[in-house]
Amino acid sequence: MKPEILFSGAPALGRISIGGSVFGRELDQDAAFAYMDHAYLRKVTHFDTAATYTAGASEKIIGAWLASRQPKPGTLTVATKLYPPYTPEAIDAGVAASTQRLGVETIDLLYLHKWDAGAETPAALKALDGLLRTGRVRALGVSNFNAEQLRRIIDLQVQLGLATLRALQNGNNLAVREVDTSLREICAAHDIAIVTYSPRGAGFLTGKHRGGVHPGSRFDVAPGHQGIYFQPLPERRLAKLTQVAERTGHPLSHLALAWALHAPGVTSVLIGGRVPDQLDQAFAALALDEPALFAELETD
After folding, report:
1. What's the CA gap between 188 and 296, in Å, rounded?
2. Is 21 exposed, middle or buried (0-12, 13-18, 19+ CB in 10 A)?
3. What is the reported pLDDT for 210?
4. What is the largest CA-CA distance in the chain?
5. Pick from 130, 131, 124, 81: which is nearest to 101 by CA?
6. DSSP 93-148
7. Phi and psi dihedrals of 116, rounded to 5?
8. 65: closest CA among 14, 101, 13, 22?
9. CA-CA to 232 of 20 to 30 Å: which in 41, 108, 177, 246?
10. Which CATH number does 16-297 carry?
11. d(CA 68, CA 60)
């Protein structure tokens, strides 16, 4: 899939982007700066964060990096997310707070972080459209929406004559897949970029948790992951990944990354590592493009 340009003057989204959910939680500012420095040197054009990541600490760290490094205009798209409620007042306040933490006048890409009934109201969608018209935001997206929720939002935006969505962000990996055929078809029809996160399943697909939760891991720091991945279907998919890894000699993490990076319809994948080497691993996995191997992995 060709790189996507979300708005005029923006760089094309590369297949690899940076996820900032670990900034301020598992990475302090110095470590996060080192990660972002390495990403920028490798020509990564998209950094992603959210207001809820460590109570705004991730946004603050990215804002401090932007102020310190001053990347050349037109080389980077910075995305953040609003959490419900999606009333006009909450949207206005949330954008103001995120703008301040990021130290920017305009947010490049603003997502609604999760579905909420308030997102499907004319008042909310008109408020979001107003952000575009006044230059406070350059592009809109939604995250963690299913196909029907996405379709209803787009239909309402069109009915009201409002600017439509430019990006969808959902989790998607070999174990837990939240980008299905219906979502891909809607996004293709409406020119919506698909950005995915958690390509290694928060470490689940590395196999590190087969003997129990690994101390200090994301499953330990954010235990909500356990209920998502410690289920029969993800476990079967991990077993299949292990089988293919043993046969081919590819590490589990390498195969999991390659599968996510080459998933059909996906524009970009967020890589939220702790050290720069993990970003290099993603670039190495991008070079592994074997459709037959990926098809084998997808069997349940």
Report:
1. 25
2. buried
3. 83
4. 56
5. 81
6. HHHHHHHHHHT-SSEEEEEE-S--GGGGSHHHHHHHHHHHHTTSEEEEEEES--HH
7. -155, 145
8. 101
9. 246
10. 3.20.20.100
11. 12
- pLDDT value of residue 41: 98
The pLDDT of 151-177, averaged and rounded, is: 98
- Which distant-in-sequence residues (6+ apart) come within 8 Å of 132 by Cβ? 138, 139, 140, 163
User: In the chain, what are the domain boundaries?
Assistant: 16-297
d(C-alpha 279, C-alpha 272), whole Å: 8
Interatomic CA distance for residues 235 and 204, integer angstroms:
9
Checking if the pLDDT of 121 tops 90, the result is: yes
Range 29-37 contact pairs with CB under 8 angstroms and sequence separation of 24 or more: 29/61, 29/64, 31/274, 31/275, 32/61, 32/62, 32/65, 33/61, 33/64, 33/65, 33/68, 34/275, 34/276, 35/273, 35/274, 35/275, 35/276, 35/279, 36/62, 36/65, 36/69, 37/69
**Is-above-0.90 flag for pTM?**
yes
